[in-house]
Specification:
By secondary structure, the protein is an alpha+beta fold. Helices cover about 30% and strands about 25% of the residues.
Length: about 180
């Protein structure tokens, strides 16, 4: 039985084995064609562990013309699936154990225009990591959402109202 540390270390090593220039077949666009003769494609992925959740983020630079194709969204989702398949295969080769990843939520894709020719694509999907026990879930809401909540709470105080200090709080100007 692998510990939480062993599972996380194995996932990180599997992701590290996909560096640009490696012989690994991840399924990224940069692996196609001749690296010397063809235009370089900028794409890659990273992994984040949020408690028992593995977030895989894929980023690429594509032509605006490719974004308009009917199968563009499906190709991005397919790339994320290829990355998951690669991570499972590498994890098995590194640790000898199998990595169980079950999808948790839906795929999120953000396309931003950089110029009249190029766009930036960022996609991520969350997966539950099998075998992680006694791990607390991390808040996956964006920092913007958390900031909005705190600003709204501050604004609700209104002018002239003061927030009551928490128990055990000492005002540094008044001494203890």
């Amino acid at each position: 039985m692998a510990t939480v540390y062993d599972i996380i270390k194995g996932i990180n090593q599997a992701a590290a084995n996909a560096y640009d220039g490696s012989d690994a077949e991840v399924g990224l666009s940069r692996e196609e064609g001749d690296p010397i003769l063809d235009r370089r494609v900028i794409d890659g992925f990273k992994v984040r562990i949020l408690g028992p959740i593995l977030r895989i983020t894929y980023q690429s630079e594509v032509r605006l013309q490719d974004v308009k194709d009917k199968g563009f969204e499906n190709s991005i989702i397919s790339t994320l699936k290829d990355i998951v398949k690669f991570l499972k295969k590498e994890y098995k080769a590194i640790t000898g154990d199998t990595l169980t990843l079950t999808i948790d939520g839906e795929h999120n894709i953000l396309v931003q225009r950089m110029s009249n020719y190029r766009t930036d694509v960022q996609a991520f999907c969350d997966y539950k990591i099998g075998g992680l026990k006694d791990v607390d879930e991390v808040d996956r809401s964006s920092s913007e959402d958390r900031l909005d909540k705190s600003i709204k709470a501050w604004l609700s105080l209104g002018p002239g109202k003061k927030r009551t200090p928490k128990a055990g709080w000492v005002n540094p100007g008044k001494g203890s």
